Each structure stands twice: as C-alpha cells, then as structure tokens.
Amino acid sequence: MALILDGKKYATEIEADLSLRVKTLVNKGHAPALATILVGDDPASHTYVKMKGSACTRVGLVSRGIHLPAETTTEELLQTIDELNADPAVRGIMLQHPAPKHIDERRCFDRISLEKDVDGLTCHGFGRMAMGESAFGAATPAGIMALLSHYEIPLAGKDAVVIGRSPILGKPLAMMLLAQNATVTICHSKTEGLAEKVAAADIVVGAVGIPRFIQADWISSGAVVIDAGYHPAEKCGDIDLEGCRERVSAYTPVPGGVGPMTIMTLMRQAVESAERFWA
Amino acid sequence: MALILDGKKYATEIEADLSLRVKTLVNKGHAPALATILVGDDPASHTYVKMKGSACTRVGLVSRGIHLPAETTTEELLQTIDELNADPAVRGIMLQHPAPKHIDERRCFDRISLEKDVDGLTCHGFGRMAMGESAFGAATPAGIMALLSHYEIPLAGKDAVVIGRSPILGKPLAMMLLAQNATVTICHSKTEGLAEKVAAADIVVGAVGIPRFIQADWISSGAVVIDAGYHPAEKCGDIDLEGCRERVSAYTPVPGGVGPMTIMTLMRQAVESAERFWA
Fold first, then answer.
1. Tetrahydrofolate dehydrogenase/cyclohydrolase catalytic domain: which residues (chains A, B) (predicted)?
2. Burial, A97: exposed, middle or buried (Cβ in 10 Å; 0-12, 13-18, 19+)?
C-alpha cells in the first residue's frame, strides 16, 4: 500500500501551530499582516487570493487584500509594493501570478523587500536559497519539501527527476532537493527520452502544468510521486496517478497534496517573518 | 578524431577583440579599471590574481590590485568593497576565493554591487542569471558556455551531467546549460551510481576538484567532455582524459581549455560593464 502524502492533513497541523504563534505575537500587541496583491480579474487568481485571505484569517494574520484594476501600470504596481515595503505592520507581501501581460512582473516581484518576500519569488531570494543562505523559499517547492520531511521520505543519494523548470517551481525545487543531497535531473519540453528518465527516478515531481502529461507506465514501482499540478476541469494533476497508485511507495493526492501545503507555507513564512521582525 | 575545445586559442581571439573595445573607451577619455582583491598569502591565489592582472594589462584595462593582510577582518574587507563600489573608474570587482577562514566570504561577495560583479559570484547575480534576467554569470561556467557556443556544440535536448555543485561552478553551470535547453543532472559526493549517470551523458562536466576523479571508462564514446578542474601537481584535471581522448567527440584540454576561458570571461564582463556604464 502506497503512503499518501496528505498535504491537507499536515497543513491543518501546521495551521494549529501557526495560530498559537500568531496569538503570542498578538498578545504582545502586534498585528502582523500579509498583503496579497491581485491585479485584474482572472477568476483563478481571484480564487487563489481568496483562499490565501481565508488562511490568514484562520491563523490570525491580518489579511491586507489589495485589488488593483487590470489597467494598472508597472509603475503604479511598483509604488504599491514600495508602500507595503515601508509599512511595518505588513510582514509579508504576495503578488499573485500572473499579472496582466503589460506589467513587467519580474520587476515587480523583485521590488518586494527580501524580508517580506514570504512567497519566495524574488531573484535575490532564489539566489540566496540556492546558495544555502537564509531566505524564504518559493512557497510551492518549500511546501513540497516540508511534506517530504514530515513523512520522512529519504532524499540523500536518491535520484530525483523534476519535470518542469519554472521560476516558481521547477528551478527552486531542484535547488532544494539538491540541498538535501538528492541527485537532481531537471527535465522540460526539450528533454529527449523523458519516459526513460522518469523510469529511472526514485522521486518524480510533476511540475509542467499539463493534465496527466506524465504517464503512469513511465513511473517505476516503489517511486515517490509528487504532483504539483492541479487541473480543476480535468480533476487531475500533471501525473496520471490512477495507473500507478498501487505500486508507487508514496504519492501526493490531487487535490489535497501539494496545494494545501503551498498556502500553509506562505502562512508559515509570513509568521516567521513577523516573529523575526518583533523578536 | 576528437575536436579539441581550445580555450587558449579562443581566449586569444577574445583578447584581441577586447583590446579594440577598451581602446575605443580609452579614446573617449575613460580609464576602466578592474579591481582584484587578494586577502592573505595563499600561493595559488597569488598566482591567479597575478594572471588576472596580466590579462588586464593585455586588454588595456587598468589593473587595480588590492592586497590585504591575512588578518583583515570581514568589516575591513566590506569597507574596501564599499569604496570600490563607490569609485566610478572601477567597473569590475573581483574578490579572490578563498579568503582566510575567519572572513565571512559570502557576505563580502554579496557586498559587490550587481553592476560591478563581473566575476558573477553574488547570490543576487546568480538568482538573476538563473531566472534569465540580465546579470554577469560566474566566470568559469560562463567561459565554458562561451567555448561550447564558439565550437557550435549542440546543447538543446542533450543530456548534460554536471559533477559538482559548488556556488561558483556546478550550480551556475547547471542553470546555464538548462537555459540552452539541455536536460541537466547535477551529481555530487552523495550521488549513487555515478558511473552509470556519466555513461548516459552526451555532455560530461567535471567540476569536483579531485584529480582524475571521473574515470575514462565511465565516459561513453562520442560524448563531449568538459574538464573544469586543474591540478598542477598531477598535471591533470578532474577527468581521466587519457583513456577516452580518442573516442569522445570533443574535449577541453587541461591545461589550455577551461582555465584561459575563465580569465578571459572575467575580462570580457569587465569590458561589458565599462561599455554599459559609459554608453
């Protein structure tokens, strides 16, 4: 029987711990806020921001939801970020990806000050994390690492194949797995012989954003399967889990695996930022 | 017959080009300087700094050699870097690794301003480079990439195995190869089945710093072999080239492969920094 890496359950446990820690801060007279910035009206982004706002409320963080119109310019968004950087009550800033196309999203992400980059999406934060320096990791890969650690999945000396090389998932996850002494292969759209590479992996991570792109018969028996994709219409992730669920050693369910960990990691990093600031 | 990736020859060509470009800057009344900082009396470091100084002179850059005593503190070194950051004539700053152990080397590297980080060793610069943003890459891997490009070695879709994960070589090289659409596996001291992984690679990069660590019979016929190691006492690199030289498709000689490219990449990035500043 495969072990279910139950992100939903573990996120609930983290939530309880964070609530206590926020209470301690509040009792000292602080009101730590997480600012979420949503630009435009993308329905999925709307949902994600709403979920993050609810999570804030549950752990006791002040949710500072900033909703800007779709026609917001890069300069206006940068100014909003500058104001939040300067606001001592705001201990974390999350800019919801994707911003409308006319916005220089990279410039905006990188404007978030390192200490408030609790979503871990600045280039500077990535570089520090990759080099083993103190920094918040990107929330999704950091959540995956927390889940692997919670279930005591061995990583050192294991062959991990990460399929996808996005700035918010594939690249940072590769660096995090490497830091835990996994041997990491980063695959992507130009990779040849993907099926064989997946077959050789002890740990397979789907991070491509294409429904059931990674086929069940590619995955070897006994592998650990992490699915960072979620496709609501198809009700599945990036990996065709059905065909291999019984013979893998552990897997993240979709939904209820990586998703809840992402949100709770954002919360955890916001709480850590607040604790550090008011230490 | 294997193609020799002649770094020495290509570096000489780059040098000629850089000399002309520096002349153009000088004719406009500028005197671009590269500052090299050496702390202590490590003989190898001494040699490297001297070689970089000579290269400056050859391309026409002002070589600002700063030699600090071994007992220099982190704070003193940071102050030196601050002064060089503020000096408009200095267009590049190179801190020779390794600094004496009592110095917080990471903090000192990261103090170098992004525009003068021509050796590409700041966390911030690494993060930007990894994310495809404008930044100077670390000199050794950037030199390797330039050499591969010069000899038109195909990278897209190829399987590259990088053995070593140092901040100045393995990690940045992995990101650079990935940007060129190679499928990249990062191996290290905890990797299991290294021989098999090397055997499966189209491109093998030795970046471990151990003489002939990578054995000739691990390397498959037709592979491209890049050796970033140089061990003067043993007169060899990280790869036992002798046993596979005839059957690989291309290789970097040791010496005369990666080494000259590292120094010339430092020069090239310093010239680019100067050109940008006075554009």
1. 5-119
2. middle
